[in-house]
Amino acid sequence: MYKSGYATIIGRPNVGKSTLMNHMIGQKIAITSKRPQTTRNRIETVLTTKEGQIVFLDTPGMIRRTENKLGDYLMDVSTSTIADADVILWLIDPSTYIGEGDKQIAELLKKSGKPVILVINKTDTIDKAHIRTVILAWEKVLSFADVVAVSALRNTNVDAVVESILRLLPEGPQYYDEETVTDQNMRQIASEIIREKALRALNEEVPHGIAVVIDTYKEEPGLTRIEATIITEKDSHKGIIIGKGGSMLKRIGTAARIDLEEMTDTKVFLKLFVKVRKNWRDNEGDLRDFGYERKKEGGKRR
């Protein structure tokens, strides 16, 4: 019996959703960092096995309050993917603390009627005996179809999550060919890789206010030419992103080029620019221009 369907990954910001998804599919697609709002778009990735096909939906961290239209977009993306899911992965830190935001998520999941797998992440940071205490605490807020303890960072017990998803998915067809691993094209992936390197290199104040736009993406034999613009909201941030003598921009570009060369299997010529677009996170036109626009739900099966 061949299983297929959609698995949505939800949880607080920075709980490790993108890291877990990257390990489940066996390669890096979603960017990772310790900054909130690292993942901004709904990203579909595909895992095809002999037993079935899982289409993973990685979403922004579920936030309770939004400060601008970008925040509204992020919350909308997170909540809307629940309706598309056959199975939901609720990823949590190994803590017994359950806040009001967690309780709201639990209510949302109860109303959905979808099977939920509780995935306890970062188990490498706690004593194994504590895991049972964490499970008992979280089972008070929601009934789970399964519970799996993992360390996404160390790729520990990630296969058990895949096995659990396949058990819960319905019987169905293969929606994507075996070679497909993501719905993201190379321009989108390049944009996200550059933003990831900026998130990691810049200070706490700047990252929330940046976006990356790919101006040109040209493929030649053995060479990929990319020109991209880092968008920021403040003139003062532009100077920080560029750095003294262009040092910060060079650091971001060098780190991004290494990943891009590995991904494209070519030499990469990467040229970065920095522009200021004041208050772009509250401008609907800018949000559309920078790729933050709701996709039509449903993937191939709807």
**pLDDT below 50 for ≥5 consecutive residues: which ranges?**
30-40, 296-300
Counting H and I runs of at least 4 residues, what is the number of helices?
9
Order of helices and strands: EHEEHEHEHEHHEEHHEH
Strand order of the main beta sheet, please?
2-3-1-4-5-6
- Any idea of the CATH class of the largest domain? Alpha Beta
Question: What is the terminal-to-terminal distance?
Answer: 21 Å
How would you sum up this structure, described in words?
This protein is of the alpha/beta class and 302 residues long. It contains 9 helices and 9 strands. The protein has helices spanning 17-25, 69-84, 100-112, 130-138, 158-168, 186-201, 235-242, 247-264, 284-289; strands spanning 3-11, 43-48, 52-58, 87-92, 116-120, 146-149, 211-220, 223-232, 267-276. β2 (43-48) and β3 form a beta hairpin. The longest helix is centred in the last third of the chain and has 18 residues, at 247-264. The model is unreliable at 30-40 and 296-300 (pLDDT under 50).
